[in-house]
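ok trying again, last paste got cut off:
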Amino acid sequence: MESQNIEYKQSWKDEYLKWVCGFANAQGGKLYIGIDDRGNVCGVENAHRLSEDIPNKIVALLGVVADVNILNRDGKDYMEIEVVPSNVPISYKGKYYYRSGCTMQELNGTSLQQFVLKKMGRSWDDMVHERATVDGLDRDAIDFFLRKGIQAGRIDPSEANASTATVLQNLNLVDDEGHLKNAALLLFCKKPGRYFTGTEFKIGRFHSNIADLVSQEMIEGSIIQMADRVVRMLKDKFLTMPIHYEGLQRIETLEVPEDALREILYNAICHKDYLGPQIQMRVWDHHVEIWNDGELPNQITPENIEKVHASYPRNKNLAFAFYKAGFIESWGRGWKKICDGFVAAGLPKPTIESKQGGVLVTFQRNNVNIPKQKPIDAQNVAESAQENSQKTQQKTQQKTQQKTQQKILNLIKRNPNITTQEMSDLIGIDRSNVWRNMKMMQQQGIIRRVGPDKGGHWEIIEQSNK
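nice, full thing came through this time. structure:
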C-alpha cells in the first residue's frame, strides 16, 4: 500500500525525480518502479541500465545520493529507490517539492519560506530586522515581562530592574552585532504593526449568523501583554461576569474558566504564523471561536492532541519568552490543561480543528444573559436560542457544501481524469474537504469512480442531475 513513505510507479519517467525530491525534503521514503497502484509487480524492462542511469540523474539534478536496488519477485525485476531525508532544502529544476501524506506538493511563497527556515533549524521569529532599533521598544512591556517571570519563579528577583540590553540578550533576541530579531519587535514593541502586518487581535460579537455583526474591537500592541488586554476587553464588553456571594463577600467570576481561556490565548498568540492575517475571535450567544493562522505541527492532530506529546513551537523565541514569563509550559500539556479547566467548570471540552490554513478552537459559553427556553408542553418543545444558532449555521454550511459540490461537478465535466489535489487547487479548499464532499456525492449516487484510484476516471450519473 502507498503511504507517506512509499510510492509505486509502473515504469520510470524522469519526472518522477519530483518524488525523489519530495521524499528528500520530507521524512525520506521509497519509490518502487515496476509495481502498480495495487502493489502488484508488473516488472520493468532494462532494469540494469536504469540502475545506472537513475542514480546519475538523481546526483546530477538533485545533488543527493539514493540507493537504487534491483529486486525480483515471481521472475519479474522491479526497482527500489531508497531516499533518506536531507538536512538541507533540495530543489528539482528550480522548484521545491515536499511529500505530505500520499501527495506531492510544490512549495512556494510563504510555505517555501517556512520550509527553508525549518531546514536551516531556524524560525521566522529568529530572523533579524535590519531597520529596527532598541529605541522602538516599550520599556513598560519589558517590565511587565520581568514581573510575570518573577511571579512565576522563572526569573530571579535580582533581575527585576535588568537593563533592556540584558533582557534581550538573555532571551536571545539580538544577534552578535546587536540587531533586533523579529521576536523582539513582536514581544516588546509598542506598535509592532509598523514592522509587520497581522499582529493585531480582532474580536467580533455575532448573533444569528456571520453577517450579524453587533460590535467589534481591535487589540494592538506588544504581544507579551496581548492576552491580558484581550481578557480585560472580554470582561468589559463581550463575556458576562455572573455575581454570587460567599457569606457577605460579593464574588464576580468570568462565565468561562479564566485560566483555561488564557491558555487558549497564549497558544494562539505564541504559535501564530505572523506572515498571515490577524488572530480572530468570534463571540456568539452560546459559544466562542478563536482562529489563528498556521497549521498544527505534522506530529500533532486534533485526534491525538490531548495525549502526552512533545512541544513543537512554531516560533521558538516567542515560546521561550512566554515560558520565562510563566504563560506556557514546555511539555506539550497545554491542551490537556485547557480541557481539564472547562470540565472542572461544568462546561464541555473545547474542540480544535485545522481550518483555512490555521487552527480553530471552539468552546461553549455559560451565558446567563441568554437562558434556554423551557418546553411549553410534552408535544411542543421550544428550541433554545443555541439550537436556533446551530440550525442557522447548519443551513449556511449546507449552502456552502452545495456550492462546493457544484464546482466539483463542473470540474469533472471538463476533465473526468482530474485528481482531488487539482480540484483542491482550483476551488481553493483543503484536499480533505474535496475528498469528503466527493465521498458524500458517491453515497448519494451523484458520481462514481470508474477504474482504480490511479488510472481511472470520474463519471457523473446523469439521472441524478435533476
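cool. Confidence is low (pLDDT under 50) at residues 373-383. DSSP finds 13 helices and 17 strands in the chain.
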